[in-house]
Amino acid sequence: MFEFTVAGHVIPLFLLVLTGFTVGVVGGFIGVGGGYMVTPALIVFGFPGYMASGTDACHIAGKAVISSIRHRQLGNIDWTIALAMVGGTMLGVELGVRLLVYTKNIGLSGVVLLAASVAVMLGLFIYTQIETQKSHRKLEADRKAGKEIGREVKVSKIPLYFQRIPIMPIIKARKARLVISMWVIVIVGVSTGILAGFLGVGGGFIRVPALVYVVGTTSHLAVGTDLVEIVVSGGYGALRQSMEGNVDFMAVFFMIIGAMIGAQFGSIATSFVRGPAIRYILSYSLILATVGAMMRLVYVLTGGAQEWLAFVAVVFTLGEMVFLCLFICSLVWFAVRHKHGKAVPEWVPPLVVTT
Amino acid sequence: MKKKGAIKFFVWAALALALAVYVFYAHETGKIDQMYYHSTKTDGYAVNTNAFFDATKEKPALLQIGPADEIRGPMAVPVKKGERLPKGANGVIDKKVVEEGKRAKVEGDKLVVMVPWQIKESKGFKYKDTFIHKGVKTDPWSGVWNVAMTIALGLCLGFMAEGLTDLLGWKIQKIEHFGH
């Protein structure tokens, strides 16, 4: 047990370390900060809502630094895209926060926030799921036909439209092997930043699909590049939250210790899988978070009449972290088994790499 | 490779350890608390909420009112907006709340606290809203300290982990994004 004098609670240390570890695994693998999972967890542990949100933002920045270092070693970061996007992301986050303050002033924030979260996450889940299933089928067909299959397979043609926009300056992202107008990247940064600032999250679950389906990077590069963005946007968020007095640094410290181990596992796990596997986990993370948010939305809209909904929403959100973590662990386990010629479920071979 | 990895691991591990020791030192000596519970945002009474957390309307807590540099136990120090908080204070009971008399009131030289916490909601989550953090202004430099420490810890732990895998001889190779 440890007394967190700033948050004003005595909490078993292992809970915070475990939370950091679990979100580290998931965040390192799919490139998200995990704010939509950690904040509810901290509230359940007894942190006040504002303190949970601020402490989470600060921990996200530290965890993103750890994951980024490993993804840099794995070659998963395109620095050209990351740097081109930073300014737009910061501007977007600031606009999003102001939009949030505006909706708060007109007395709408709770409902608007939850409804916006549900709509964005559900939309992203549907598109990611459909595209990834098509890619999975293509991988399976190519494998059965004896063709060599690449690390990344995507069937979406959307990036081609954006890459053809001829507005100067045009930049060449060498690692991602694409040529694109810088304005497309800046606008992606601004729009994902607005959503991140408005929803009060790091924005990884919006930015990773945007990097894959709008800019056209591979899933691995989207994960690594997004984590660099999270260092910047998370650091800015952490500064603002700390100045408002919403951060318990000791809680951040213990979560970062857990995240150090989890983030290594999650980041290195990306080298065992093909792109669609990352997108599958991302889409499952989106739908699970959507269901949790939907339950809270119904709870708020019914004026808190359905008490059980709030309880189930919390259980669901915490269960999501464990489920995703176990899913990633089993994927790596299957990848290792497949590499050694052992039996694995039929859906696994197209999603993992053997070399 | 292993020699380089060993140097990398030990250097970054030493730095991470030094940071951890500094963080614990700051925690134990109350530096972190003093940065957080820095000054007051409102006129009222500085208190330590742990002293009356289990008070009820039937069995209210009685806090001795009076000036002090440090709060120990059931004490309430009158403060004005912008003043430094006494050591040990973790909340300010607003003058308006006391005048309202629903949660706390003044009786002679005692501050009587009857409702130390109430259930509130945020984004569909319920939480206990207490007097802790209320009316407290954090030192703006603590924001810079928090972010600097977080990033420094992240860098030390990240490079330490990288050094460890090199030391153990694990081959973490760059991913061929467009290969097979």
Number of strands of chain A: 4
End-to-end gap of chain A: 45 Å
User: What order do the strands of the largest sheet of chain B run in, or round the barrel if closed?
Assistant: 5-2-4-3-7-6
Radius of gyration of chain B: 24 Å
> Sheet with the most strands of chain B?
6 strands, mixed
The termini of chain B sit apart by: 26 Å
Name the CATH superfamily classification of the largest domain in chain B: Molybdopterin biosynthesis moea protein, domain 3
Rg of chain A from C-alpha positions?
20 Å
Shape type of chain A: globular
Q: Please give the domain count of chain B.
A: 2
Low-confidence stretches of chain A: none
What structural class do helix, strand and pairing data of chain B support? Answer: alpha+beta
Compressed to H and E, one letter per element, the order of chain A equals EEHHHHHHEEHHHHHH
CATH topology of the largest domain in chain B: Molybdopterin biosynthesis moeA protein, domain 3
Highest-level CATH class of the largest domain in chain B: Mainly Beta
Q: Kindly state the mean pLDDT of chain A as a whole number? A: 82
The major β-sheet of chain A equals:
2 strands, antiparallel
| Count of folded domains of chain A | 1
What is the helix fraction of residues of chain A, given as a range? over 70%
3D architecture notes:
With 355 residues, chain A is mainly alpha-helical. Chain A has one domain. Chain A is globular and about 60 Å long. In chain A, 57% of the residues are buried. With 180 residues, chain B is α+β, with helices and mostly antiparallel strands. Chain B folds into two domains: 57 residues; 99 residues, Molybdopterin biosynthesis moeA protein, domain 3, CATH 2.170.190.11. A six-stranded mixed beta sheet of chain B has the order 5-2-4-3-7-6. In chain B, β6 and β7 form a beta hairpin. In chain B, α1 packs antiparallel against α4. The longest helix of chain B is centred in the last third of the chain and has 28 residues. The radius of gyration of chain B is 24 Å and the shape is elongated. Chain B starts with a helix and ends in a 13-residue tail after the last helix. The chains are: A mainly alpha (355), B alpha+beta (180). At the A-B interface, α3, α5, α9, α10 and α11 of A face α1, α2, β8, β9 and β10 of B.
